[in-house]
Design brief:
Length: 216
């Protein structure tokens, strides 16, 4: 099922990066931003949860350890609240003035993590987030597909600490991977699915080539 609002005829572009933890989304978002800016494009790079003052506070609350128990529904609502502010304050205004927004995660992550990973139901979680964002949808979603075990090895390289969601068992992350791939299967025109094991520069070239097809 697609997100409800069509992105056609918007002045700018909204590009999202999705995938399991450790897939390399931040790296590729940075490379795409650099390439587009070198081409003279105005780019707003942002992330979820976060992107606004309230969103960054909610990010700390939901991802950092030590904030007490956060049940699945509360977790889903925190992500949706952060996203509502993000779209209203940052993403929609930037796209409407003709900028390119490059965002690390969006609704598809909530569908995968809370809908499937937390077993809240993908349909219910999507509906909640469509309401929170007034149906605002990406022009393109880049899915970097990574095996959960490989993702953990990448995340913990150099003994890096894992956040609340990253530290969930591989079975949780396997459900998330399957949920991402299912979303891509049901909405193929919006997705570019890439194997995250490919060399960083090859991934960047493939992503930029696809984005160029969308540029005016």
């Amino acid at each position: 099922m697609s997100i409800s609002e069509s992105p056609a005829n918007r002045p700018g572009l909204f590009i999202t990066f999705e995938g399991g933890d450790g897939a390399g989304k931040s790296t590729q978002a940075a490379k795409l931003t650099e390439a587009l800016e070198a081409d003279g494009r105005k780019v707003v790079r942002t992330r979820e949860p976060g992107g606004t003052a309230v969103g960054e506070q909610l990010r700390s609350l939901v991802l950092e350890h030590g904030n007490g128990e956060i049940d699945a529904r509360t977790e889903a609502l925190i992500f949706a609240a952060s996203r509502a502010a993000h779209v209203a304050q940052v993403i929609r205004p930037a796209v409407e003035r003709g900028d390119i927004v490059v965002c690390d995660r969006f609704i598809d992550s909530s569908v995968a993590y809370q809908g499937s990973g937390r077993s809240l139901g993908t349909g219910d979680v999507r509906q909640l987030n469509v309401w929170a964002t007034e149906g605002f949808s990406p022009d393109l979603t880049v899915l970097l597909d990574v095996d959960p075990e490989q993702g953990r090895l990448r995340r913990t390289a150099n003994q890096a600490a894992e956040d609340r969601l990253e530290s969930e068992p591989d079975t949780f992350h396997l459900r998330i991977r399957r949920a991402f791939l299912e979303q891509a299967r049901t909405d193929p025109s919006r997705y570019l699915v890439l194997d995250a094991r490919q060399p960083v520069d090859e991934l960047a070239e493939a992503i930029l080539a696809r984005v160029k097809e969308l540029l005016p």
